[in-house]
Amino acid sequence: MPPATDAEGGATAKLTPLRRAIAVPPGAAARSSVPSVRYDLAVSGTGELPPDDGVPGDEGTREIFERGGASWYGIQFHQRKTANGERFDMAAMTAAHKTLPFNTRVCVRSLVNGSEVLVRINDRGPYAAGRVIDLSRAAADRIGLTSMGIKQVALTVVDREGMRCGGLPVEAGDVLASATVPAAPQRARAPAPARRKAVVPPRRQR
C-alpha cells in the first residue's frame, strides 16, 4: 500500500490503526457504586415485596408497602388547595399518594442513599407512570431528591408505636390512629309537606 499523500503531493506519515483494548483495565476500581435502576417500574402490595432490612439504628425488619419512583412539587403549588382541602405548604413534611387515606403517616426511604423522611398524606397523585409518591419540597430535600428530580424509594406505613424512621423512634402522635376518613356531617333535611289529594267533582249528566 503506498504512503498517504497531502494535497500538494508530498508524502505524509503512514496511518496505523488503533490498538484494540478494553475500556477498563482488569482489576480497576468501579467508576460508580450506585446500582442501575428502572424508573418505569412501581411495585405495591406487602405480599409481593420482601421485608426491609432497615438502616443503622433501626430495630428489626419492616414491611414495605410500595416501591417505585418519587417526585416532588414546590413553589408552583405553594398555598394552593390539596385534595383534602388543606393549603399546600412546601415547607411541611407532607406528600401525595394515589390510594392511601389522608393523614396516613409514611416513612419514605431512598433506595439510592438510604436516607429517610416521615411524611403525612394530604394530597392525591402522582399520576405519571412508575411514580408512587409526590413529596413536598422540604421532604424531598431531607432525602436528597431535589437534586435528582426522580428517585427510587420504598414506602412503609407507620401504623404502630415503636416503629422508627430515619433512625429515630416515631412519636405516638405520628402513628396512624385509623385508616378510615371520617364522613362529612350531613345536614338534617326538613320533612317534605304532605301532598294534598285533588278532589275531582263528578261529571254532570245530560
List keywords for this structure.
single chain, 206 residues, mainly beta, Barwin-like endoglucanases, six-stranded mixed beta barrel, two-stranded antiparallel sheet, 1 helix, 21% strand, elongated
Low-confidence stretches: 32-41, 46-51, 53-60, 177-187
The structural class is mainly beta
Second-tier CATH architecture of the domain at 43-174: Beta Barrel
Oligomer: single chain
Give the topology string: H per helix, E per strand: EEEEEEHEEE
Distance between the termini: 132 Å
**Name of the CATH first level of the domain at 43-174:** Mainly Beta
- How would you write the strand order of the largest sheet? 2-6-3-5-4-7
Number of helices: 1
The name of the CATH superfamily of the domain at 43-174 reads RlpA-like domain
Radius of gyration: 32 Å
Proportion in helices:
under 10%
Per DSSP E runs of 2 or more residues, the count of β-strands stands at 9
Fold and architecture overview:
This protein is mostly beta strands and 206 residues long. The protein has a domain of 132 residues: Barwin-like endoglucanases, CATH 2.40.40.10. It is built from one helix and nine strands, in the order ββββββαβββ. About 17% of the residues have low confidence.
Could you give a short description of this structure?
Helices cover 3% and strands 21% of the residues. The chain is mostly beta strands and 206 residues long. Strands 2-6-3-5-4-7 form a six-stranded mixed beta barrel.
